[in-house]
Design a protein that fits this description.
DNA-binding, DNA_helicase_UvrD/REP, about 15% strand, globular, six-stranded parallel sheet, Arc Repressor Mutant, subunit A, Rossmann fold, nucleotide-binding, alpha/beta, eight-stranded mixed sheet
Length: about 850
DNA sequence: TGTATCTAGTTTTTT
DNA sequence: ACTAGATACA
């Protein structure tokens, strides 16, 4: 346990006598890296002292400015690596920043312990001061799953019908309160009355329960630190002195708690540099306050405001289109991006009959760009991305790309560590490391099924509560008292014994890891090693094996099962990078991503939110229809504010593109199983005509874009919206295909040799792949599961899938069913 | 306890 | 259309 007394002992804070500022300034080395900066960047980098707000538009080199600034702080001797607090939102951003600082200085930066995400830094701080909020320093960090389970228990204990009052709603409320840095006693009465008049009370009960469990949720990490800083000026003062310079990335995304945390830390020296772009604030819905960036100058009078406006990413047309759209927002600080880049292609706009056609068109467009088209050089699929508003839009693309055999990768969706099997496995590891982790026990006690249902679990709960012990111990007592009979008792016995052996093995490994005769912190002498000499990796395999968890998925015939086994294998592999299970668990609590290196080139499909901070030479922006984008819900719930956030999202989308940006919309789209017609997005009208090339046939609604004067009368509406009035003739699909615009588009398309065979490697494989199947074969497909081959057409197979129905799929995406199960871990 | 059936709710997501 | 989660039934 680290109390405040250990403060000075920690290496991150170790302070040898520090040379005076002057002495260090004298020692400053030349700063060649400054020559790489443009004047604005240089200004932001060289203003080292006092508050600085760097307004950095998309693609203006803000990361470069930020990292150079850090390098400059170090190089001028203003601060040592461990005196700089540099906060980001994602681990990825933190990693990137570390790498780039090192590169700028041309040497590895050892020990920048305070460069990381808000949460990672707060964990470090909170472990030192846990006792100030009644926690022990080895508290666990709950993920949203645990959090929800806990809330459900409290809700049913309070006799609330969680059907009318869903736990998720309460979780959302509590999250929102924590984002605003409101502890249970600080929630305004009006707000606390939410959730059937019980919100405030349940929040309090939840916080109490967390303390009992020695646990925190993500919001607590910030909330606890803010309240510690507020209640203990001495603690705050230490850190104010220690963190001599503060840098914040993506400042527009900070919530109130993060803002307060920063303001407290910077209050004394005010050496704080915030980098952000109000035009890219797209996380209002999860508590981000654009207001934080808008009022920086008020909070820090005399702040230097630097605008980075020279863009190094996109062509002028793309920038102009983005600027045109974002100009529609009223509450902005105002920036105008410019570039020295060559003109390039206009932003392209195309309308489609429906969502499937949109996917088909984009698929073909991607293939022709990949081959090289209109004299353009061939492009890698890695250079292309499809950015959607909502993840359900991805399906159309996945379906289409699977059919034509276009490799794609979907970013987003459930992340690795959020998958069920990974969480289950982690719960097993948790119970092995800490037998008193009740939430972990609850998760695994009947997974896989052990015949321990609600009743048995209630008995365990009772036994544990009446003896005041953790659940696992309660289970042991229950068994001793013969309070459980039958199959369940035998299974529980096995589980309890296994947990004991695993824990012993963990302790044993700890012994190996430490000194021979080291004393364990809990004073327990390990039982004689029933699992001798196991590394933590081997132990993990043993745990998954003995628990029956691996077998559970091996016996599962669902299409996901092989993938889940694969993931478990991946998890065990990830363990190799750690010294022990404890370290791994700590790491995973905060790092939810697990990026595996990809070899094959693939088109990226992701949401607009996910794309922030990324860039691609070629970007497709489908689904620009009113209601979908801007999202109806956003507008209904947040009015103009919501619409402006959607508009910023559009701005983010367009500015991801370096060279080619294609916006599209469909007149009809299937949503929740219903066909819906919609109008092109209002954002389309905001695109400046001079920078847009319209591919849409004028017969299609929206084809009137850019020809307002000509087309207003009979042209235009009616295609998609029934609302536009019955007087309009409803265009047919044939009309569209006969329209001049469509023909022109077709003509353009045929300029490139469509018949040209696909990449030779792929076609060779295709032929080979297809020849290995015949009708009647049972096959397995990663997404669709098992099915029977009904016929063969070219390189595609007609397959009747057991779950997904009949599909045409390229042969190389399919394996023989008997091979699918072979590749099992362990 | 395990399975079959129904019912409601479907934006965006990091830590 | 689809899925997750809860309830009904074997």
């Amino acid at each position: 346990m680290r109390a405040m007394s250990s403060f000075d002992e920690n290496d991150a804070f170790e302070s040898a006598a520090r040379p005076s500022l002057a002495a260090r300034a004298m020692a400053a080395r030349p700063a060649p890296y400054l020559d790489d900066l443009n004047p604005a960047q240089r200004e932001a980098v060289e203003a080292l002292d006092g508050p600085v707000l760097m307004l950095a538009g998309a693609g203006t080199g803000k990361t470069k400015a930020l990292t150079t600034r850090i390098a400059h702080l170090l190089n001028t001797g203003r601060a040592r690596p461990n005196e700089i607090l540099a906060v980001t939102f994602t681990n990825k951003a933190a990693r990137e920043m570390k790498e780039r600082v090192a590169r700028t200085l041309g040497q590895s930066v050892e020990g920048m312990p305070w460069m990381g995400t808000f949460h990672a830094i707060c964990v470090k701080l909170l472990r030192r001061h846990a006792e100030l909020v009644d926690l022990k320093s080895n508290f666990t960090i709950l993920d949203t799953d645990d959090q929800l389970r806990l809330l459900k228990q409290l809700i049913s204990a309070a006799n609330i019908d969680d059907k009318r009052w869903p736990a998720r709603m309460l979780a959302g409320l509590i999250d929102g309160w924590k984002n605003r840095a409101w502890g249970p006693s600080q929630v305004p009465a009006g707000e606390a009355a939410a959730y059937n008049n019980m919100g405030g009370e349940l929040y309090e009960a939840y916080q109490r329960r967390l303390v009992e469990l020695n646990a925190v949720d993500f919001g607590d990490l910030l909330l606890h630190m803010v309240s510690i800083f507020q209640k203990h000026p001495d603690v705050l003062a230490q850190y104010q002195r220690w963190f001599r310079y503060i840098l914040v990335d993506e400042y527009q995304d900070t919530n109130v708690a993060q803002y307060l945390w920063l303001r407290l830390l910077a209050a004394d020296h005010k050496n704080i540099c915030c980098v952000g772009d109000d035009d890219q604030s797209i996380y209002g819905w999860r508590g981000a306050e654009v207001g934080n960036i808008l009022r920086f100058e008020k909070d820090f009078p005399g702040a230097k405001v630097v605008r980075l406006e020279q863009n190094y990413r996109s062509t002028p047309h793309i920038l102009a289109a983005a600027s045109g759209v974002i100009a529609g927002n009223r509450s902005r600080l105002g920036k105008e991006l410019w570039t020295e880049a060559q003109e390039g292609e206009k932003v392209r706009l195309i309308g489609h009959w429906d969502g499937e056609e949109e996917a088909r068109w984009i698929g073909e467009e991607i293939e022709s760009l990949q081959r090289g088209t209109r004299g353009l050089p061939p492009r890698s699929l890695d250079d292309m991305a499809i950015l959607v508003r909502a993840s359900h839009q991805m399906r159309a693309f996945e379906d289409r790309f699977l059919t034509i055999g276009l490799p794609y990768r979907v970013i987003g969706g459930p992340r690795f560590y959020e998958r069920m099997e990974i969480r289950d496995a982690m719960a097993y590891f948790r119970i092995a490391v800490s037998p008193d982790d009740d939430l972990a026990f609850e998760r695994i006690v009947n997974t896989p099924k052990r015949g321990l249902g609600d009743k048995a679990q209630q008995k365990i709960q009772m036994a544990a509560r009446s003896n005041g012990v953790p659940l696992l111990e309660g289970a042991r007592i229950l068994l001793e008292e013969k309070g459980l009979g039958g199959k369940g008792a035998a299974e529980l016995r096995k589980l309890v014994d296994a947990c004991a052996r695993w824990h012993a093995a963990v302790l044993n490994a700890q012994l190996d890891f430490l000194d021979e005769d080291a004393v364990l912190d809990d004073g327990l002498v390990p039982l004689q090693p029933p699992l001798p000499g196991l590394s933590h990796v081997e132990l993990a395999e043993v745990i998954l094996d003995e628990s029956g968890y691996t077998a559970h998925w091996q016996n599962d015939k669902s299409p996901e099962a092989p993938g889940r086994l694969e993931n478990l294998k991946e998890l065990v592999k990830a363990l190799e990078n750690f010294d022990n299970l404890q370290g791994f668990l700590e790491h995973v609590a905060l790092i939810m991503d697990n990026e595996q290196e990809e070899t094959e080139e693939k088109v990226t499909i992701m949401t607009l939110h996910g794309a922030k901070g990324l860039e691609f030479p070629v970007v497709f922006l489908p689904g620009w229809e009113d209601g979908l984008f801007p999202s109806q819900r956003s507008m209904d719930e947040n009015g103009l504010k919501g619409l402006e956030e959607e508009r910023r999202l559009a701005y983010v989308g367009i500015t991801r593109a370096e060279e080619l940006c294609t916006i599209s919309f469909a007149a009809n789209r299937r949503l929740y199983g219903q066909w819906q017609s919609s109008m092109p997005s209002r954002f389309i009208d905001e695109l400046p005509e001079d920078h847009v090339e319209v591919l849409t046939p004028p017969g299609l609604y929206g084809g009137g874009y850019g020809a307002a004067g000509l087309n207003t009368g009979s042209m235009g509406a009616g295609f998609g919206t029934g609302l536009a009035g019955g007087m309009e003739q409803r265009a047919t699909k044939a009309d569209v295909y006969n329209s001049p615009g469509w023909k022109r588009m077709q003509a353009r398309r045929s300029e490139r040799p469509l018949s040209q065979p696909r990449e030779s490697r792929a076609s060779a494989i295709d032929l080979e792949a297809v020849s290995s199947f015949t009708a009647g074969n049972r096959v397995f497909h990663q997404k669709f599961g098992y099915g029977i081959v009904m016929g063969i057409e070219g390189d595609k197979l007609d397959i009747a899938f057991e779950k997904a129905g009949a599909k045409k799929v390229v042969a190389r995406f399919v394996v023989a069913a008997d091979q699918a199960g072979d590749d099992v871990p362990f």
